[in-house]
Amino acid sequence: MTWDQMLDLMWPATWETFQMVGVATVVTVLIGLPLGLLLVLTDKGGALQNAPVNRVTGAVVNLGRSMPFIILMVALMNFTRAVAGTTIGWEAATVPLTVGAIPFFARLVETSVREVDGGLLEAAHAMGGGTWTSVRKVLLPESLPSLVSSVVTTIIALIGFSAMAGTVGGGGLGFLAINYGYLRFETGFMWVIVAELAVIVTVIQLAGDLIVRRLTNRGGSGGTTRLLRSRDTPSEKDEELVLPH
Amino acid sequence: MITTKDLTKVYRTRGREVTALAGVDLHVREGEVYGVVGTSGAGKSTLIRCVNMLERPSSGTVTVDGVELTALPGTEQRAGAELRAARRRIGMVFQHFNLLSSRTVQQNVELPLEIIGLDRGQRRRKAGELLELVGLADKARSYPGQLSGGQKQRVGIARALAGDPKVLLSDEATSALDPETTRSILALLRDLNQQLGLTVLLITHEMDVIKSVCDSAALMRGGRVVEEGKLTDLLATENSQLARELFPLGEFGHGHRGNTVLEITFQGDTSARPFVSQLARTYQIDINILGAAVETIAGRMVGRMRVELPGGHRDNVVPIGFLREQGLQVDVLDEKGGAAA
Ligand SMILES: Nc1ncnc2c1ncn2[C@@H]1O[C@H](COP(=O)(O)OP(=O)(O)O)[C@@H](O)[C@H]1O
Ligand SMILES: [Mg+2]
After folding, report:
1. By the number of CB atoms within 10 A of the CB, which of B175, B188, B220, B318 ranks highest?
2. Residue A222 pLDDT > 70
3. Which of A69, A67, A56, A86 is CA-nearest to residue A163?
4. Which of residues 235-274 of B touch A (CB under 8 A)?
5. Ligand showing the shortest atom-to-Cα distance for residue B218
6. In angstroms, rounded to a whole number, what is the distance separating the alpha carbons of residues B177 and B172?
7. DSSP β-bridge partners for residue B218
8. CB-side neighbour CA atoms (13 Å) of B252
């Protein structure tokens, strides 16, 4: 194969991968973010404390997380046909990709949001803020760097899974790599595609790190710690006062 | 301004019960600085958090500025609209400042104003005024992470004042700060109390804080208030533990066996009178001064002196009576150095 032949094949496949990952990422964030918040808010001590909702949501998320991607693709065949109108090509692959990524991202959101210092929520409550204020003015902005890095992690995971989806007729770079590299013994071409995927992943990771660093670069945190404390911790000075008995 | 009636709080964690408050009656008058002091675990934080319902009391009532907060609907996690409205008029500052790291100083002060629903222009103006008031106008665009502890607490105070509160709650606001910064923050609280007529309820484990800013104080132990009152009254109370703590003479000598040791406390104008020499002249006794100190407490000069008189308590009934007639407070110490019953 010549470079020109390779490039002619790679451009459309790259574009397909971008579409798959792009659409899947947008939908994943739109659904996974509220889902992650729901996991935190309905938990014990949360503003919307609700044990049944929390347990069911948690179980569904865990099920989604533990399901092997290939099985998910097969299991979702009918759903995919209903949503995308087809079961082959990048449009079809986007459906299981998204379904698989949502629980993954939701857990990352949950972890990020839990890291927010409970004292900040307390301050918002003391000011007379409600649940919505806590979410919009405290939880989301304070966990933003961590949320952005979760999105980056999710995008990179989606690129990996999209390549896997390609191997079973999902289109994109993965499809190309398997179709030519493996089935037609164009090993060189396969390595070119692998290199391209590596470059894409690296660029996204670096760009993500840059954004996260810019968001975090505010001279440190507002409190003294970002530990999971829900109330004040006594300082070591507490021991100093000795009152007579 | 703040009244609690028979306030109790019991925490239940994994079957174990902890009584953090065991019936607290607190009364904070309008315009005063009221300090609650006690060792770690005494229930001070629980008490102050019950005042704005961050913690729901197990029983009892809390009334702030005429509103009975305990009667307003809501849960600990989720306050009802009325309670949220009441909280907007109660400022709170925290030991660890609790500033949002994602917001600038100015934006942090604007947060309560956003909650109240002021528009952009009003918020900006108000926040500017408040930062001016706490002496941080030049840091408006900084992030909290770029400030020192004392500066962070000033931002915390500006933020707490944003809703024009009548009451300011402070939970160990200076405990994470060094002594010098502590002094400047306390001076600021005192200024705000005087300039704005702000009622301040503060929690501390340090007697120095009580001594330097409070008009009244309560001593907490084991979830109860064991002693409370105006500092000037406490100092005039015999065997007051708070007074002893505020004004310790512990390191002074305890005199000789068989002699009588007195602790004399004098306030304001009495400190100008030469009662020691009067006593020595009138009763022809040799007075041995074991120690003395003068300090300013709650804005008044207060002195305490430990003296030794020859002979036992019975021999000195008349001189002690003389001192008490002079308007002095006299505590007779037993041989171990504690106050006699
Ligand atoms: N959220 C909680 N759950 C269980 N026990 C608590 C909780 N908060 C405080 N306590 C207990 O209540 C008591 C009083 O605590 P606190 O009010 O923080 O005291 P202080 O502020 O005087 O140090 C302590 O024994 C503490 O362990
Ligand atoms: Mg405390």
Report:
1. B220
2. no
3. A69
4. 241, 244-245
5. 1
6. 10
7. B36, B228
8. 22
Q: Are B264 and B329 in contact (CB under 8 A)?
A: yes
Query: Nearest 5 degrees, angle CA A43-CA A44-CA A50?
Result: 60
Q: In this structure, what token pair is assigned to residue B113?
A: 């104003």
ipTM above threshold 0.85: no
Q: Ligand 1 pocket by C-beta < 6 Å: which residues?
A: A 234; B 11, 13, 18, 20, 38, 40-46
For residue B258, is pLDDT > 90? no
Pick the residue from chain A with its C-alpha nearest to B101: A222
Given the candidates 3.40.50.1240, 1.50.10.10, 3.40.50.1820, 1.10.3720.10, the CATH classification of the domain at A3-217 is 1.10.3720.10
Domains detected in chain B: 2-235 (3.40.50.300), 249-333 (3.30.70.260)
- First-to-last CA distance in chain A? 91
Across the range B151-170, mean pLDDT stands at 96
Q: How many CB pairs under 8 A join A and B?
A: 150
- Proximal ligand: closest to the CA of B175: 2
Q: What is the number of H-type helices and E-type strands within chain A?
A: 10, 0
pLDDT band at B118; cut points 50, 70, 90 = very high
| Residue entry with tokens 């500017």 | B128
Q: State the pLDDT at residue B158.
A: 96
Taking 80 as the threshold, does the pLDDT of residue B171 lie above it? yes
Contact, B232 vs B298, CB < 8 A?
yes
CB–CB contact A218 B101 (8 Å): yes
Instruction: Compute the distance between CA of residue A83 and CA of residue A23 in angstroms, rounded to an integer.
Output: 13
Q: What pLDDT is attached to residue B334? A: 67
Angle at B217 between CA B216 and CA B220, to 5 degrees: 160
Tell the residue number behind the tokens 């001590």, with chain if given. Answer: A45
CA distance A204 to B50: 49
Alpha-carbon distance B265 to B149, whole Å?
37
What are the residue ranges spanned by the domains of chain A?
A: 3-217
Secondary structure (3-state) at B109: helix
SS3 B158: helix
Beta strand spans in chain B (E):
2-13, 16-28, 33-37, 59-64, 67-68, 90-93, 167-171, 199-204, 216-221, 224-230, 260-267, 288-297, 300-309, 329-333
